[in-house]
């Protein structure tokens, strides 16, 4: 016996005679944004089915407990903040008092140091005489230990705009002035004949350092900020020589490409303050030691014939 073929239902609806489609998820979501459970709950409330009896009392009790705990925590936090405020105020007042006291002590010591420096200068002039004092003054001016006045050039460098890479989020710093830029400017001014240089008022000496610490630039451990003013005393054409030189060309290129500001002007009758007192690291006699008796010496060397000058001689700077 054969089984009659089972008829396959028409998914498109044979009675309608046309193909129909059910709504997709996004269409259904926009047409009915509420969850069916919310609609059922609203319908039950409309019919008068509300929480009653023990369930309602339990829900109300839990709400009161939670509200009480939150209020208690807020009160405790407020009381703790009020209790700690006098201690913070006292600590801040104590620090302010210490800073003011140390500042007053510093000013007193600085005034005493200036008074002693004047006394030393008067005693030196009285003991050494005019010619020797004038020679010492010239040496102090050359080494940066005395203020100087004259004409020269002023180089102004300023940070350009910085941008952030939209892909990597990295901040571009090509337009910022770096320590190497100030080093280049100072070296170019020395090479052009500058006799004294100061960066933002900090006098440069033979032992000065220009270094970078993060994005801050330190001149002899003292921070300087943009705009950076490099003032030099030297020949009348110092500004022109700087702009036409390698350093000037380099800064003009940075200005055109990255927006770094660069300006060179000629200045007259500027005063550069003295640098802080130098600390000597080593010293050696300025005259060669006497040659041993009976041994001839090489003229001008201070060493016996047939031997070379010892290491650390004055000609090598004591190193």
Description:
The structure is a single chain. With 319 residues, the chain is of the alpha+beta class. Among the domains are: 24-128; 149-164 and 172-272, Alpha-Beta Plaits (2-Layer Sandwich), CATH 3.30.70.1880. The chain contains seven helices and eight strands, in the order ααααβαββββββααβ. It has helices at 25-31, 36-46, 54-128, 130-143, 179-191, 238-244, 246-258; strands spanning 148-158, 196-199, 202-203, 210-213, 216-219, 222-224, 228-233, 261-272. The strands form two sheets. Strands 3-2-7-1-8 form a five-stranded antiparallel β-sheet. A hairpin with a 2-residue loop joins strand 4 (210-213) and strand 5. Helix 3 runs antiparallel to helix 4.
Protein topology:
Blueprint (H helix, E strand, L loop, with lengths): L24 H7 L4 H11 L7 H75 L1 H14 L4 E11 L20 H13 L4 E4 L2 E2 L6 E4 L2 E4 L2 E3 L3 E6 L4 H7 L1 H13 L2 E12 L47
Antiparallel strand pairs: 1-7, 1-8, 2-3, 2-7, 4-5, 5-6
Number of strands: 8
The share of residues in helices is 40-55%
Rg over CA atoms: 42 Å
CATH superfamily of the domain at 149-164 and 172-272: Protein of unknown function DUF881
Number of helices: 7
Beta-strand portion reads 5-15%
Q: How confident overall, as mean pLDDT?
A: 79
Structural class: alpha+beta
Briefly note the CATH topology name of the domain at 149-164 and 172-272. Alpha-Beta Plaits
User: SSE string, helix = H, strand = E?
Assistant: HHHHEHEEEEEEHHE
Span from first to last CA?
A: 120 Å
Quickly name the level 1 CATH class of the domain at 149-164 and 172-272: Alpha Beta
């Amino acid at each position: 016996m054969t089984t009659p073929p089972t008829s396959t239902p028409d998914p498109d609806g044979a009675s309608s005679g046309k193909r129909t489609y059910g709504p997709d998820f996004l269409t259904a979501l926009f047409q009915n944004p509420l969850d069916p459970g919310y609609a059922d709950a609203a319908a039950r409330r409309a019919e008068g089915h509300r929480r009653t009896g023990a369930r309602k009392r339990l829900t109300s009790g839990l709400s009161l407990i939670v509200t009480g705990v939150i209020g208690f925590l807020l009160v405790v936090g407020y009381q703790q903040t009020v209790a700690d405020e006098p201690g913070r105020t006292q600590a801040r007042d104590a620090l302010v008092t210490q800073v003011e006291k140390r500042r007053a002590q510093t000013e007193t010591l600085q005034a005493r140091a200036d008074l002693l420096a004047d006394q030393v200068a008067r005693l030196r002039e009285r003991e050494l005489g005019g010619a020797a004092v004038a020679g010492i003054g010239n040496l102090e001016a050359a080494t940066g230990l005395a203020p100087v006045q004259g004409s020269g050039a002023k180089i102004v460098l300023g940070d350009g705009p910085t941008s952030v890479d939209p892909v990597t989020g990295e901040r571009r710093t090509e337009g910022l002035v770096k320590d190497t830029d100030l080093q280049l400017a100072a070296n170019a001014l020395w090479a052009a004949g500058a006799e004294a240089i100061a960066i933002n008022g900090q006098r440069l000496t033979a032992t000065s350092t220009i270094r970078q610490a993060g994005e801050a630039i330190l001149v002899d451990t003292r921070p300087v900020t943009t705009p950076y003013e490099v003032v030099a005393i030297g020949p009348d054409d110092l500004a022109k020589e700087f702009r036409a030189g390698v350093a000037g060309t380099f800064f003009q290129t940075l200005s055109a490409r990255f927006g770094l500001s660069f300006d060179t002007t000629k200045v007259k009758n500027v005063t550069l303050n003295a640098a802080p007192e130098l600390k000597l690291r080593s010293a050696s006699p300025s005259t060669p030691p006497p040659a041993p008796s009976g041994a001839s010496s090489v003229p001008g060397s201070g060493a016996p014939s047939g031997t070379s000058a010892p290491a650390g001689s004055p000609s090598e700077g004591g190193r």
